Each structure stands twice: as structure tokens, then as C-alpha cells.
TrEMBL record:
GO terms for biological process: iron-sulfur cluster assembly. One of its GO terms (cellular component) is cytosol. GO terms for molecular function: 4 iron, 4 sulfur cluster binding; ATP binding; ATP-dependent FeS chaperone activity; metal ion binding. It holds the Pfam family ParA. This is Cytosolic Fe-S cluster assembly factor NUBP1 homolog. Binds 4 [4Fe-4S] clusters per heterotetramer. Contains two stable clusters in the N-termini of NUBP1 and two labile, bridging clusters between subunits of the NUBP1-NUBP2 heterotetramer. Its cofactor is [4Fe-4S] cluster. It comes from Zophobas morio. It comes from the Eukaryota. Its main location: cytoplasm. Belongs to the Mrp/NBP35 ATP-binding proteins family. NUBP1/NBP35 subfamily.
Amino acid sequence: MASTVENPTNIPEHCPGTDSANAGKASACAGCPNQQICASGPAGPDPGIQLVKERLEQVRNKVLVLSGKGGVGKSTVTAMLSRSLAARDKDSNVAVLDIDICGPSQPRVMGVLNEQVHQSGSGWSPVYVDDNLSVMSIGFLLSSPDDAVIWRGPKKNGMIRQFLSEVDWGNLDYLLMDTPPGTSDEHLSASTYLSQAGLTGAVIVTTPQEVALLDVRKEIDFCKKVKIRVLGVVENMSIFVCPCCKRLSEIFPATTGGAKKMCEELNVPFLGSLPLDPTVARYCDEGKDFISELPNSPVVQALGEIVKKLVTVCESREE
């Protein structure tokens, strides 16, 4: 197993490391899920790491949005955070990078499904949702939203490198990166390319029930092993607010105390909980700006508090 960090703690004794000419080719690499990535990559440090560092020099905060499992609303929460950050301060610049290569959701959630990416001498131009909010996704490069992306690890790795090093992001206050569930190729690629670019940290999304929290614990462990700071955990769909009678219901019961209890046990920040509002969910499916159109929604109000905490955590890093 080849590592993605300098001093990992979870690799076999005889792993040659990614900087070795034998990376992915030694006998110790047999059976490692990352063997093909290591074997197909360049011997020695990947030159893409330096390219990414140079491209992202004008990006103040680079934040990965992770989830232990699918179905917890990670892509929706990414879009919510980006819209709220952009609306909070019109002088700040926010962007979303969709590195969920096989399941790109951001073009639809952000309401720019049929837009096209343009290329200039300075690189790819992201698609603008608002004056201070932009997005880049492989979804813009497909001929149809229904096209399947059937790629192995090395090709995903190359696409992520291109997104990070060849998109003309300009001056950004926040770059949120929407990742697929779990700890797979995309996560290893992102952590490798961002290793020298000043990655701010990761926001982890979960739902209250224990089956989701079990996988989130693994995601937190992944962050610790690859030295990614956990900025905090967001508990999505914590409670259901009936749009008719306003009655509160637990769709996903927090039988073990939910995300807040887990954060206390693992000593990671808890950013807050988001209720489940069917109206907001519909707005996200339709790509509408729910921040301005549904200002009284309990989701929007809870989101404001979460973003306030996230900004504080990010700013404390810069001091």
C-alpha cells in the first residue's frame, strides 16, 4: 500500500511509498486498493502537487465536504453552505468544486445544469451562479446529464488534478469541494494534491442514526491518518418539520445521542443540526436560491448559525 502522506500510521512495514520507483510494483503492494494509482503515477513527487499549490495561492480557505456514506445529503449541504457563505458577505467570493466524478450533483443543485464551461489562456472558467458564487463540475463536460462516467482510479485522479490546477478560480475566500461518500480514490487524490496547498480542513456531513455515525467515525479516522483537520460535523435531516402543522418528527432517531454526542466522544467540533424541510429540498432539486426566497425556513435559520461557526473556525486557523 503506497501512502499519500509523509508519515502515515496505517501502512504495511514494507510499503515502498509513493516517491519510490517501485510504488505499486513491489510485492508489498499486492492487494492494495491503491496499487494501480501508485503504479501508473510518476516516480517521485507528482508535479501536479506544485501546480495545484500555485493555482490555489489566491484561495484563502480550501474546505473538503465529506460523508461516511451516501444518502446523508452531502451535496445538498455543500450547496447550502456555499449559498449561505456567498449571501452572508457579498464582498466575499465563494466557489464549489464537484469532485464526485461518477455522481456530479452540483450543476442541478446550483441551478446551472445546462451551462457550458469555457476555456481561455488562463484555464477553464467556472460557471457563475451569482456574482460571487461559482461552480465547476464534470457534469458540465458531459453531453447529457444521463451520461454515466465509468472511469478507473488513474483517470479520476487526472481529472481532479485538472480541476484543481487548470481552473481559473481567481481570488476566492472559500472553495468548497464536494466529494463522493467514503474514503476512495477521489479522497486520496484530493488530499495528495492539496497536501502543499494549505488545505483548511474538512466538514463532515451525517444524519442522526447510528448506521450513519458508524461510517462517519471511519471518515474522521481517515482525516486523522492523512492529517486533514476536521473543521466540524454537520448533522443533516436531524428532525422533520411538517409544512402544514409545523409538528416536529424524528425521521432518523438518534438512538445513540446523534452527531453531537459522537463529536464529544471523538473531540471534534459540532457545527450544528439542519432540520428536514420538504420545501427547501424541492428548491434544491430545482436549483433555486432558497436563501433569498425562504428566509423564514428553519433550515435557513439553522444554516446561518452553522456558517457562522464555520467561518469562526476557518478564521481561527489564519490567526
